[in-house]
Amino acid sequence: MQTEDQSVFRALADPTRRTILRDLARQDMTIAQVADNFDMTRAAVKKHLSVLSDGGLITVQARGREKINTLNPHGFAPVLDWLTFFDQFWDDRLADLKAAIEEKDA
Q: What does pTM read for this prediction?
């Protein structure tokens, strides 16, 4: 697995970061707006946002003195690729099982 892929999974491993992603799916937010949804310091929220940014799951743009955090749907591509591999794996296994059952019944 490539390093950038690992950073995506690292970012998704934490439930707080997954909640932040759900919030950002609804609207872009400043650090303060994200922090308002959690019982933690802005510094802690900023650290979570940094991990999400490092994983490519969000983008951060400066707008004046504020930093606006935006969900980056393209950042989920490594996760989708990983899940697609296993989706195909199970499709193949189930097709083999079906063939074996049909062969036995014939």
A: 0.77
